Amino acid sequence: MSSAPDEIDFDYATTLADRANGFMAQHRVPPTPENFAVWFFYAMGGSLTLKKTIDILIANKRKFDSLVNRDLYVTYVRPYSDPGLSDDIPDQVHAVIASAQEFLATAISDNRSQMESLGEVSSECQAVADPRPIIEKLLKELSSATSRSTALEANFLRTTQDLDQIRDSLKLAEQHSNTDPLTGLANRRSLEAFLRTAQITSMEAGTPLSILMIDIDYFKTFNDSYGHQVGDQVLRLVGRVLQESVRDCDHAARYGGEELIAVLPGATLDVCAEVAERIRRRIGEARLTRRATGEEISSVTISVGVAQFRMAESAEGLIERCDRALYQAKRSGRNCTVRESSVDEEIAA
């Protein structure tokens, strides 16, 4: 995603505003401040991903309702308006940059001095008959230049090492920010980002995309009967089985509480339902023991809802349909998998 410029020429901004208003009128988007920000950003070309997403929605005749408009704003515009973003840059990065600038300034100054000295040597060559003093002076200048170059190289090597450490720290911090600490699965923030990308890919390539949502049956009973530590143990078990049952290209995440979710790019509803059933059976066959006492815990079962992405629908719409299928699984006695199509058939009947 490209950066939004701090300042825009007044005439250019006016042109963009007119274009944004025109787009909003054409697609019947309510003229709210948030919606205007989205379409102004679209007209400006401030985000290739935003432009691609809106173009796909338009091509598929998707209505820009309140859910779609809000999702576009939160995903693509609000991050630029967050005043705290600049504060997230680690202080050590500023220190490394300042150090590198100092090294470069020294190198430039030394190089200028060396060129002046060599110029003097060149002038003396024309005026002095005996070249030995000139050669000695030249060798001295070259030796000094070599020493300065070695010192500069060492400084930059240290700077590179510092940057490597900062990069690794930031990578670890990003990993932690995208991971649920209890289950080790992706968290909701990571899920939402992955799902947005998967939706765009599905719409562009015309490939299927499905999700499954898991709810642990009678989870409150585990907590009440055995304590929260056992409840955590149950969550970790289900999370582990979920992660082991999906492909590397899939995305398993903790959605919230005892609900887990997996996004399966390229998978049809039937394939996703098969994966869900495999997970359900594996969990039903697993046996847990209470670590403190060795007591065997009653078997764990799950209810699963499965849904397939519909062209140009919002992430919220897809998850809502999957959640309805999950709710139907719980109403049907739990420990089963229900497809969204079954819910649709029941509603139609």
TrEMBL record:
Highest taxon above the source species: Bacteria
Biological processes annotated in GO: cell adhesion involved in single-species biofilm formation; negative regulation of bacterial-type flagellum-dependent cell motility
GO function terms (MF aspect): diguanylate cyclase activity
GO cellular component: plasma membrane
InterPro entries on file: Diguanylate_Cyclase, GGDEF_dom, Nucleotide_cyclase, Rev_trsase/Diguanyl_cyclase
Domain GGDEF, first and last residues per copy: 207-342
Coiled-coil region: none
EC class of the enzyme, as a word: transferase
EC number of the protein: 2.7.7.65
Entry-linked SMART domains: GGDEF (SM00267)
One Pfam family recorded for the sequence: GGDEF
SUPFAM superfamilies the UniProt entry points to: Nucleotide cyclase
UniProt cross-references to NCBIfam families, sorted A to Z: GGDEF
PANTHER family hit by this protein: DIGUANYLATE CYCLASE VDCA (PTHR45138:SF2), REGULATORY COMPONENTS OF SENSORY TRANSDUCTION SYSTEM (PTHR45138)
Protein name, per record: diguanylate cyclase
The organism of origin for this protein: Bradyrhizobium erythrophlei
